[in-house]
Amino acid sequence: MPAVQHWGRKESIIWPPRGYIYSIGAFFVALAVCALLMYVRFERGFTPLQKYYLPYYLRTELAGQFHPADAYQLLYIADRQSVRRLALEDDVQPGVTLQAAGRPLPLQLSVQEAKNGSSFLVRGPLVRYSNKLLHAWLGRSVYGGEPVYKPFVSELWEGLAVFGLLLPISIPKDIARTKELRYGRRLKGPFLVRAC
Fold first, then answer.
1. Which residues of 41-50 are buried (b: 16+ CB within 10 A; e: fewer)?
2. pLDDT tens across 130-168, in order?
């Protein structure tokens, strides 16, 4: 039996890609703008305690849907003898507090609290808390009753507006590119080049 002959090259990758790359690029540019605005909001619009507890606030919201309790380390104010109480917004300011175990805290005691006799901030022991109860406490005491997504709503709308502005530019480019890939680079007539 004669061998079957294959002519030409076997291509495994289609190049140039056939997708709508300008529209996809517009989506990723809008996503990058949205992420940048959210980062600026996080850095400039959040208090030091809100920055510290944001991963816990998100985690208690999401994990609360699947299992009732998880282990968390909350911030406490301590003196030389013992741990006194949970740290609140007025007790902390930006700075660095070294810890006996683990990485340093990105917070330090406020001047007012230091005058009251407190010595330092300490990360509490790893304790299991109810996700829903801890989320409610964080929402009430640290975030003023705002839901997790509320601080970032305006940034999401701005990212959507950027995508809406880029879409009228990207769609015609995608259509022209699709026609060029389908029919070839020149659809009709010669292309005259002026001598330099």
1. eeeeebbbbb
2. 999 999 999 998 988 888 788 889 999 999 999 999 999
